[in-house]
Amino acid sequence: MAETPHRVAVLVLEGAKPLDVGIPAQVFSARPSMPYDVRVCGAAPGEVSGGDGLSYVVAEGLDALERADTVFIPGYRDPATTEPPDAVIAALIAAHSRGARLAAISTGAFALAATGLLDRRGATTHWHYTRALAERHPLVRVDENVLFVDEGTVLTSAGAASGIDLCLHLVRRDHGVGLSNHVARRLVAAPYRSGGQAQYVPRSVPEPLGDVFASTREWALVHLGEPLTLAQLARNAAVSERTFSRRFVADTGYTPMQWVLRARIDVARELLERSDLPVEQIAHRVGLGTGANLRLHFKKILGTSPQEYRHTFSA
Question: Quick check: helix, strand or coil at residue 189?
Fold first, then answer.
């Protein structure tokens, strides 16, 4: 018997931002490689006025949330001065109570906070609205310096682009790094901005040399199996080590060698999922030298062992 697809509902509220709606709808879209089923719904079936001069026609109302395993709440206009309808808040609370996870993109965090489910939990939203979210919902621990926050069954992300990171994070959490990287390639999106399975993720701050550093990161990914030093990375980027380190941290949230280590761990994860290579060989292939070294860093970053990870996610 075929496994039932994970059901995703994208809840379109008044003033919904088109990109925020489109990201989960496209990431989780039904296709042979994706074990998800996506439905776009609203407070009621019919036309929903959107932001940026667009509107939506949704076939389903809040009953779609009764069947969803994950509910996305895209961002919407004027969140600091408008409240979602009481029926929407009640439906979100009911969905969460029966086990659905709720994920907000950008200002969708305001609707999620209105349920009370973010009280005494970490959350984020678009940087322009973090102060307003903290003032309107003082029990929420708002963090403006992250891409997204994963609190298990409730998740929030910053601006629209970080909605992609949140979606990839959930794919990775559900099915491992292999499928997540497959989706990232399809979207032509960065596969490493989720920072492994860490709960809090530094926000990317673009710099003028971002393109140069992007090419250096691509070069590093090709050479992960070799010894990599800060001097080599800076030389590839054609800047001094000090400049490279400072701007790399601003661009990625990690020091260069922290990023290299996490990239190595992510490649190791994919090899654990998609091959039968022994841990020692995987450690050598990703540049970590020994199986003991791989186990050490795997435990620090992911909180588990390579063997346990393989058991969970191996095809």
Answer: coil
What is the pLDDT, as a whole number, of residue 191? 64
> Which of 103-112, 128-137, 183-192, 246-255 shows the lowest mean pLDDT across its residues?
183-192
Contact 31, 186 (CB under 8 A): no
Do residues 174 and 237 both lie within one domain? no
| Cβ-Cβ contacts under 8 Å for 113 (sequence gap 6 or more) | 123, 133, 136, 137, 140
Cα-based distances in Å from 176 to 196, 212, 261, 265, 306: 10, 30, 18, 13, 13
Q: What is the pLDDT of residues 274-312, one digit of tens each?
A: 899 999 999 999 999 999 999 999 988 877 789 888 876
| Structural domain range at position 287 | 209-315
Give φ, ψ of 233 to 5 degrees: -65, -45
According to DSSP, residue 311 is labeled H
**Residue after which a domain boundary falls, among 171, 200, 229:** 200
Alpha-helical (H) ranges within the chain are 18-27, 86-97, 108-114, 130-136, 160-175, 177-187, 210-222, 230-237, 241-252, 256-274, 279-285, 291-302, 306-313
Amino acid at 149: V
Strand partners, 16: 50, 76
d(CA 294, CA 96): 37
Q: What percent of the chain has a predicted confidence (pLDDT) above 70?
A: 90
How far, in Å, CA of 240 to CA of 38, rounded? 48
In this prediction, residue 192 carries a pLDDT of 52
